[in-house]
Amino acid sequence: MKGLVITSRGIEEAASVEIKELISADCRVEDSCVIFDFRDFKDLCLLCYKAQSVDRVLYLIGNFAFENFFGDFEKFFVKVGFDEWIIKSKKFKVECIRLGMHDFKSVDAEAKVSELILKKYKNKKFKAGIKDYGIIFLVYIIDNKCYFGVDFAGFELNKRNYKIFLHPSSLRGTIAYSLIRQSGFKKTDVLLDPFSRDGVIAIEAAFYAADFPVNFYKKDRFAFLKLNTGINYEKFFDKIDKKIAKSKMNIYSYDHQFKYVDYSRKNAKIAGVDKQINFSRTELEWLDIKFKNGSVDRIITGLPTSKNANLDKVYNEFFYQSAYILKRNGVLALISRLPDLAKKYAEKHEFAVSKEKGVWSGEQLLNILVFKKKSI
Fold it and tell me: How many Å apart are CA 35 and CA 26, to the nearest integer?
């Protein structure tokens, strides 16, 4: 059986790694999505519950490239079979996610697919519904490619319920997770975010390190609960939740403004991982007092970009402090809208770029930069 996860553009690699870790699946990375093999529907449910890099999780019925979407979808629809899903549910809903330039709208695609399903299964009294439905068929269109499947999540998994107290430059949870994995973070590492803002990086790191399901508080919302998969969902959730580590981690969430330390702590409490994170209001200049020389494995953060700040002074101090507290083989992973400025001061303090890539938050391009000390 084939599955599909939809991701933000640029974090497909992190999604592929996460899928392999969670369900030991072979993956094929495509633009803004990953196709993978799976053996059991529990695999899809597990990805919905725990995966931090994904937007949607689908049972993939099929995919194709098109020139004329409506004509080509009709040809595709004749060839594919999904009778087993019709038997399991009498009411359905069609959703369309569309990226790229097209001469039709998402609602047009939803209407066409609904029409084809009703026509094909008219003898089975299959009905389309908006709110009352048993199954969601999702059409994912990106440029000239279309993926069609059953949505196991039923909502956007990239949206975090803990993001209540927000910084103006808050990161998506999926992008923060990708940044953490790009750094090579291990669950026992000492991790510092010195510009915590609203705590997203520390919270996502704590989810990963503590095996805490990112959707722990959304158990009752999943679309797969309406599907007749033969899974005992109560036992399924309990088995995963028993693995949660409750001890404090070596994760440090710092900011020079008390307001954002407070935001981070409150959001972490909502997320359920506040006990696993160390919070402190700390100025950049104090980092070498808080941490011993060469004691930090990973510094992972989003650098400031505000025009009101003296960015040259801030960046210089940041890399100076990082050079002191970071281990000789430690890693500095940043997400920045000013990559050239970051590289300038990284070079000054003897850091070299080991990895660089772009990720997209909607239509906005962000830059991930991973540095290591030149002496290594």
Answer: 9
Side by side, which strands form the sheet with 191-193?
277-281, 251-255, 191-193, 296-302, 326-336, 364-373, 351-361
- Check pLDDT > 90 for residue 4: yes
> Running DSSP on this structure, what letter comes out for residue 172?
P
CA distance to 4, 9, 56, per residue, from 360 (Å) = 19, 5, 16
Pairing outcome for strands 33-37 and 145-151: unpaired
Joined tokens for residue 306 = 């505000």
Collapsing DSSP to helix, strand or coil, 12 comes out as helix
Whether 376 shows a pLDDT value over 60: the answer reads no
Compute CA distances 357 → 35, 178, 364, whole Å.
21, 11, 14
The CA distance from 236 to 213, in Å, is 13
Q: Are 68 and 57 in contact (CB under 8 A)?
A: no
The model's confidence at residue 204, banded by pLDDT at 50, 70 and 90, is very high
Give the CB-side neighbour count of residue 274, counting CA atoms within 13 A. Answer: 15
The predicted-structure confidence for 305-322, as pLDDT tens digits, reads as follows: 877 778 999 999 999 999
- DSSP letter at 308 equals T
Structure tokens at 231: 């899974």
Contact 59/1 with Cβ under 8 angstroms? yes
**Dihedral sign (CA 175, 181, 186, 187):** positive
- What is the rounded CA–CA span in Å between residue 124 and residue 117? 11
- Phi and psi at 63, nearest 5°, equal -150, 155
- What whole-number distance in Å separates Cα of residue 255 and Cα of residue 321? 14
**The tokens 């303090």 sit on which residue?**
349
**CA distances in angstroms from 16 to 13, 25, 320, listed in the order given:** 5, 9, 35
Convert 216-245 to b/e letters by CB count within 10 Å (16 or more is b): bebeeebbbeebebeeeeeebeeebeeeee
Task: Find how far residue 331's CA is from the centre of its chain.
Answer: 21
Cα distances (angstroms) measured from residue 165 to each of 178, 328, 360: 22, 36, 23
Q: In the sheet that 91-99 helps form, which strands lie side by side, from edge to edge?
A: 27-30, 33-37, 2-6, 56-65, 145-151, 135-142, 91-99, 127-128
